[in-house]
Amino acid sequence: MRLGIFGGSFDPPHLGHKHLAEKFVKICELDSCLIIPAYVSPHKHRTDASGVDRLNMCQLLFNEPHYEVTDIELKRTGKSYTIDTLESLVKSHPDDKIILSMGTDMLTCFTSWHRYKDILDLCDIFAFARENGGELKMHEYVEKNLPEYSDKIHIFAVNPLEMSSTEIRDLIEENADTTGYLSEEVRKYIDDRGLYS
Ligand code: ATP
C-alpha cells in the first residue's frame, strides 16, 4: 500500500491544504493519505485553536474515503517532530511505502528539521509549490543544500491556491467573507465556536 503523510498546524485547515492533498493523492497514486495535525509545530510557537478543534476541522475538510485524519501527534503532545511520527508509522505499517508531502516554505527550511537525514532515509518527499514560482525556489534549495538527496525529493508546480492560515485568521477576525479560502463546513464550525475572533 502507498501511504501519504500530510502534516501541519491546520489552524485552520484551508482549501490550499485540500488542493495540495488532492494533487498528492493523484500524483503519488496513494491508497491512503494521513492528515496529521501537529500538537505544536517545531516551526511555530503556538496554535490559536485547540488540538481538538483543529482535528475536528480537518475531519470536516478531509471527509472523503482516501483521507484519514489522525490524532497521533496530538496524543503524543510536546513538539511534533516528523521523524518521531515517521518512525512510529514505519513500525505500524511495515509493508507500506510511506511518502511525505509539504509546501514550499517547509521544503526550503528542511535542513533545519530535527534529524532531517533520518527522515530522508525512511521516505521520499513530494513537495508542492504553494505560490507561483515556488518550484524554482525549491529546486535551487535542493541543489544547494541537499544535492545528495535530489533523487528522493520530487518537486511539483500545481497551479497553487495562494493562501495561508495566518491570512485566513485575519479575515475571520474582521468577520470577512472566506468563500474560496475555507469550506462552508469549516467556516460554520469556526463561527459556531467563535474561533479566531
Ligand atoms: P500559517 O499561516 O499559520 O503558518 P499555513 O497556511 O502555512 O499556516 P500549515 O498548517 O502550517 O498552514 O501548513 C501545513 C502544510 O501545508 C505545509 O507543508 C505547508 O507548506 C502546506 N501549505 C500550506 N498552505 C498551502 C497552500 N496554499 N498551498 C500548498 N501547500 C500549502
What does this structure look like?
By secondary structure, the chain is α/β, with parallel strands linked by helices. The chain has one domain: Rossmann fold, CATH 3.40.50.620. It is 42% helix and 16% strand. The protein has nine helices and six strands. The protein has a six-stranded parallel sheet, sandwiched between helices. Helix 2 packs antiparallel against helix 9 (184-193) and helix 4 (82-92) runs parallel beside helix 6. The chain is globular and about 50 Å long. The termini are far apart. The model has no long low-confidence stretch (mean pLDDT 97). The structure holds adenosine-5'-triphosphate (ATP). The site of adenosine-5'-triphosphate has 20 residues, from helix 1, strand 4, helix 5 and helix 8.
Write the CATH fold name: Rossmann fold
- Please give the domain count: 1
Highest CATH level, the class: Alpha Beta
Task: Determine the strand fraction and express it as a percent band.
Answer: 15-25%
Question: Radius of gyration from the CA trace?
Answer: 16 Å
How many distinct beta strands?
6
Bound compounds: adenosine-5'-triphosphate
CATH architecture: 3-Layer(aba) Sandwich
Parts with pLDDT < 50 across at least 5 consecutive residues: none
Overall residue-averaged pLDDT value: 97
Counting H and I runs of at least 4 residues, what is the number of helices?
9
Looking at the structure, what is the overall shape?
globular
Strand order of the largest sheet: 3-2-1-4-5-6
The run of helices and strands is EHEHEHHEHHEHEHH
Query: What class would the helix/strand composition place it in?
Result: alpha/beta
Alpha-carbon distance between the two ends:
42 Å
Helix content: 40-55%
Within CATH, the superfamily carries the name HUPs
Task: Please outline the major beta sheet.
Answer: 6 strands, parallel
